Amino acid sequence: MTFLEYGDMQTFGTELPAMFNGMKLAVVAAVLYVIVRCLNLKSPNAAPRIMSQDTLHSRYLLKSCPMLTKEYIPPLLWGKSGHLQTALYGKMGRVYTPTPHGLRKFLPMPDGATATFDLFEPLGAHTTEDDVTMVICPGIGNHSEKNYVRTFVDYSQRQGYRCAVLNHLGALPDMELTSPRMFTYGCTWEFGAMVGYIKRAFPQTSLVVVGFSLGGNIACKFLGENRSNQERVLCCVSVCQGYSALRAQETFLEWDQCRRLYNFLLAGKMKKLILSHRGSLSSMSSSNIGDADLTKLCAATSLMQIDDSIMRKFHGYGSLREYYEKESCVHYIHNVSVPLLLVNSSDDPLVHRSLLAIPCRLAEKKPNVMFALTEHGGHMGFFEGAVLFPQPLTWMDKVIVEYTNAICHWERKEKACQRTRNPNRGFHQLSSTLKLSG
After folding, report:
1. What are the residue ranges spanned by the domains of the chain?
2. Residue 213 is a catalytic residue
3. Is the pLDDT of residue 278 over 50?
């Protein structure tokens, strides 16, 4: 056996602290590298990429909406991670949540269902002094009591907008189902009933259609289903939707960007929501849902399994493919002729980048469409802030109102120009009326 001599031991002993210090530095460097990569800290702030045709209208909108042309600055330490933006939105919705006071309306549907929405009156005068109502469709399983909806409604009210927020069928915790069905990915019946009520109750108002995530799909599909649905609509804004459920279903099974994990978590929430109405869904004589379907639901680990066992059967679709095809706005959105702002984030972990080709092509082909793609923001996050703490209002909240204000001012100028070009229009109409009455 060979023994270290005293001199060698002394030399080795002096080298140990240096070795340990080197290892510590290597570990710290590795941790910092992982943090920088995971938090995407090297990614620079950037203005949204805007895709639209070069028209007088689009130039006016971009000039009037500086938030669409200047840098979006998320919180420095975590805001460039789409996962953290999405997680914070999913956990708390918004940092500070006001409590707007509205009136709940109940609308009986032809099939026995009871649609509900909350109506919030404006808290100030609109910049154009016009009567404008935002008709809002929230995200999957959401309603007017969600924090992000409350924050947006309160901000819109203070900018002079009346707000009507749909409560998705079956989403309210204290509201029992009165028919054996819940909301689905693209059913527009309840949203259409709310819009119809607003048009009848406020014949002088103009409408702004706003949809978040799944609600964006419903809003765009509603407008494209029938041209009459676009009457009195000034514009539509859709945020973080996926456009085609059929194309999205395969991406939801991939581990890229942890989509499979998000799929599992969303499926758990949907499962819990559906099972809370288990009695109503299975006991009614007209129900398409049986005990076998509910058993499959309990074993489901993905949204696709839930859609196949439960959701498609609410409207009698024969297959999952048919359900996704018929309920996706991709087949209807090209019929929308009112100004349409589509907003997505590049780092949205729920919406695969391949789906963003749909709004890109639409903006290239249709002069009324503008597509804004941010570098950061996650799914429905879009938090703004300096270093760590985000602001109560998000970039998304402010952009929707800024764009809508610009549309309202454009419409007012257009009406003024029409009166200038044809100053005797009112006189001719009055003369014709007098002749007919005579």
Report:
1. 49-244+335-419, 252-327
2. yes
3. yes
Please tell me the distance from the alpha carbon of residue 268 to that of residue 303, in angstroms, as a whole number: 9
Residues 179, 213, 244, 345: which is the catalytic one? 213
Alpha-carbon 357 to chain mean position = 18
Question: Which tokens is 152 given?
Answer: 């947006």
* pTM exceeds cut of 0.85: yes
CATH number of 49-244+335-419: 3.40.50.1820
DSSP string, 356-373: GHHHHHHHHH-TTEEEEE
Residues near 248 by beta carbon (within 8 Å), at least 6 away in sequence: 242, 351, 352, 355
Residue 436 predicted with pLDDT over 50: no
Active site residue 428: no
pLDDT of residue 432: 44
Q: 209 has which bridge partners?
A: 135, 236
Query: Which is the catalytic residue, given 348, 352, 376, 397?
Result: 348
| 328-383 per-position pLDDT tens digit | 999 999 999 999 999 999 999 999 999 999 999 999 999 999 999 999 999 999 99
Neighbours of 97 (CB within 10 A): 16
Active site residue 379: yes
